[in-house]
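Title: Prediction job returns without error message
Component: structure pipeline
Severity: low
Priority: P3
Assignee: unassigned

Description:
Job completed but the reporter wants confirmation the result is attached to the right record. Sequence as submitted:
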Amino acid sequence: MPVQKRFKTNYPGVYYVKGVSIGTSKPEKIYYIRYRKNGKPVEEKAGRQFQNDMTPSKANSLRTRRIEGELSNKEKREVIEAERTAQENKRTIGWLWIEYKKNRPNLKGLLYDENRYKNHIKPSFGDREPQELVPLDIDRVRINLLKKRSPGTVKNALELLRRIINYGAQKNLCKPLSFKIEMPKGKSEKTEDLTPGQLKNLLDAIEKDSNIQAANMMKMALYTGMRRGELFRLKWNDINFDKGFITLRTPKGGTEQKIPLNEASRTLLQGHPKEKSEYVFPGRGGNQRKDIKHQVNRIKAKAGLPKDFRPLHGLRHVYASMLASSGQVDMYVLQKLLTHKDGRMTQRYAHLRDETLKKASALAGDIIQEAARDRNQKDEAKTA
């Protein structure tokens, strides 16, 4: 390809070549500048006569700025490319979250974690690397969330953030945090209960509802204290009618657990319709169910229960509260029935058992006092 002839201008280091205007084929001057930067010669296109309204004077001004340190077009492109590459290689919390999920395909509670990440973590931390965070960043998010969310919700969100960063640090994907994430203070778990009247209304609404899956699922939560996810994952081969046990394959604690198949749940399951699925309460296409919120909320509304009562998890609390307040079940047994990994989780029901014990103790005192009165009356009768 022949070399284009260069034409000098009145400005040193500024020249032009003759070209054709884009779109009109009209003759046009294309200006170039030459200068030295860091001891190296640089040649750069300054612009076109018509397209960029370039003149020798403007080209000379551009040359002066370049000599004074302004980046050339090539350098600007290199900076942009370097920033793009750095951004792509940046191991942000959002990137770590994707890697975390990839390596935990059977992660329990993924749907809840997805919502926590999307709503509470991504907006503030998704595009930041762990080493960029300082305690004040966490404090601001915690304080803002507590204005509109419960301490338990905020704690779960921050715990997920901690899990993601710890995973990255363990896999040498990022540096660990240099500080401890402060969790919100206050009760993180809500304990729900129903009055006898509310429970009766709920049972009536369950019996009248046309959705047998939702109705029986709510009964199972009440009869066994099973968690929502455990009910969704329950398969027919997890139920041993002969030995009287239900196997929880992937409970919240992580280790396989067994709970008793009491008579109420046995009768319910024996009468529950079996569909062409391995799951007891299947979802679409016989696959594992993902949600039943609409159906159980409808039953809750018909029963007139409080708006903040959780139809399935709340019934687990009702189950536990009834056992604790009966005075016939100690905290250790209740912990095993609820498959709590940590006994401290069960202690939220201890006050119910304490109240029952107080009533029993008061009753014992009344009986003894009554016996003492009877004895005194007999003694008085003898001396009369």
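Comment from assignee: result matches the submitted record. The beta strands are 7-8, 14-20, 27-37, 40-48, 239-240, 245-248, 257-260.
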